[in-house]
Amino acid sequence: MPDVWIVFSPADRRRYWWRTGVVVTLLVGVTVAMGLAEIGSDPWWWVGVFGILYLVAIFDMVNRIYGRTLLTAAGMELRTLVSRRRVPWSEIAGVEERRRTTRSGTWTHLRITRHRGRPLALPGTLTNRIWDAELDRKQVAIQEYRSRATTVGPPNTQAAG
After folding, report:
1. Is there a contact between 19 and 57 (Cβ–Cβ < 8 Å)?
2. How far is the C-alpha of 103 from the C-alpha of 88, rounded, in Å?
3. Following DSSP, what letter does each residue of 111-135 receive, concatenated?
4. E-strand stretches of 16-156
């Protein structure tokens, strides 16, 4: 079986980049405006603290945008900017859709449940669309790949005779 990548489409990456850029610009603008409006001897220390928090948030979003999952015959490889993890098909109990509702809307991603251990979010599957056909295609592809990989047994070692 050929390897299959689960990644964001270029349009989704652009959309998330724009969203990240707008949010960061607004947050930085508000922080600087509040820092300039503050009367006191040293109001800028908290601007630095918020700047560090913004950098963490930006890095998290970039990590999510460029995360990807590789489906192989042996299992799944979860890749982000800072980590790589291999999970064999024998450890995977299932694939589920996880929804999280925040003030900005409902975010959905896929995650794998394992026989032992905590569930793992799959990079390249985050979306904020309610009914996302691309996310459904990704989930079907993962489940089909998993079923093919687990039904293929070890090679027959008995001699024909």
Report:
1. no
2. 36
3. EEEESSS--EEPTT--B--SS-HHH
4. 68-71, 75-79, 84-88, 92-102, 105-114, 120-121
Percentage helix, strand, coil for the chain under 3-state DSSP, each rounded to 5 = 45, 25, 30
Query: Residue 82 — φ and ψ, nearest 5°?
Result: -115, -5
pLDDT tens figures, 44-97? 677 778 888 888 888 988 888 899 999 998 999 999 999 999 999 999 999 999
Q: What is the pLDDT of residues 29-58, one digit of tens each?
A: 888 787 777 666 566 677 778 888 888 888
* Side-chain-side CA neighbours of residue 122 (13 Å): 31
What the block records as the tokens of 52 is: 């560090």
Q: What is the pLDDT of residue 43?
A: 63
Query: Rounded to an integer, what distance in angstroms lies between the CA atom of residue 80 and that of residue 63?
Result: 6
Closest CA to 6 of 49, 67, 59: 67
| This prediction's pTM | 0.76
Determine the 3-state secondary structure of 77 from DSSP: strand
Residue 131 has pLDDT above 70, yes or no: yes
Q: Is 22 in contact with 29 (CB distance < 8 Å)?
A: no
